[in-house]
Design a protein that fits this description.
The chain has helices at 2-25, 29-43, 68-80, 84-91, 99-105, 107-112, 148-202, 206-220, 224-239; strands at 49-56, 59-65, 95-98, 120-127, 133-140. With 240 residues, the chain is an alpha+beta fold. A five-stranded antiparallel sheet has the order 2-1-5-4-3, with helices on both faces. It is elongated, with a radius of gyration of 27 Å.
Length: 240
């Protein structure tokens, strides 16, 4: 028994090491969540499939999974508005239940999930931000698929995953802001170039030179940057 427990902990440690490596190296959110699902199934022997549920504005959706059957179990819960993954996401409390308890706690879901072959459920809350939160869900075909140790291990995995996903979201947000800034600077450079040409050609001051393309943009509806680019291109071709 002790040897079996040590072997199991070794497997869990290896899976967590691999998950940590993915979280350190990967930047794509979808890839991270997909790898989290696969690593958690490897780390917890009772797990046959996994998924990640995210609630946004109260609406659930599955954003990562190990197979189509996990998606079917998720959809069964979404369709009736109850079940372990929704309970974990909403209450932020780990849900560890066998199929008999499901019939008692969520009878509508038990009916919807009948025939999907799941006998045990384990869902842990997954919190990225107040706006985005959900659950990491494990499904087992075995009646006693999950024990207290499994719940503790899943919480450990979700803690590591939350940190990695937050870092990835910060990176994506920072990259988007940098792209927006780069675009704004490019737009300003083109507009300033067009303004300089207008000042030279029409012998007007900077304010009037800026107002001329603005007025045209309002009349014709193109973006000011696009109008300025066309104007500069026209002048360059005329010079050529």
């Amino acid at each position: 028994m002790i040897a079996g427990l040590v072997s199991r902990l070794d497997d869990v440690t290896s899976a967590l090491d691999e998950l940590s490596r993915v979280l350190d190296e990967e930047e794509d959110l979808a890839t991270i969540m997909d790898r989290v699902c696969r690593q958690v199934v490897s780390a917890i022997p009772g797990a046959d499939m996994a998924s990640v549920t995210v609630l946004h504005a109260g609406e659930p959706r599955t954003v990562a999974l190990t197979g189509e059957r996990a998606a079917e179990v998720d959809r069964a819960q979404y369709g009736v508005g109850e079940g372990p993954c929704l309970e974990a996401a909403r209450t932020r409390v780990v849900q560890r239940v066998a199929v008999a308890e499901v019939h008692e706690r969520w009878p509508a879901f038990a009916v919807a999930a009948d025939g999907l072959g799941v006998a045990s459920y384990l869902s842990a809350p997954l919190v990225l931000e107040d706006e985005y939160h959900g659950s990491l869900n494990l499904y087992s075909e075995r009646t006693h698929g999950f024990r207290e140790l499994d719940a503790a291990l899943l919480e450990l995995c979700t803690t590591a995953a939350e940190a990695g996903l937050r870092n990835a979201r910060r990176y994506v947000r920072a990259r988007r802001q940098a792209d927006q800034l780069r675009s704004a600077l490019t737009s300003r450079a083109v507009i300033d170039q067009a303004k300089g040409i207008v000042m030279a050609v029409h012998q007007v001051d900077a304010e009037e030179a800026f107002n001329l393309p603005v007025d045209r943009s309002q009349r014709e509806n193109p973006k000011l940057r696009d109008l300025a680019e066309r104007f500069v291109d026209d002048v360059s071709q005329a010079d050529g």
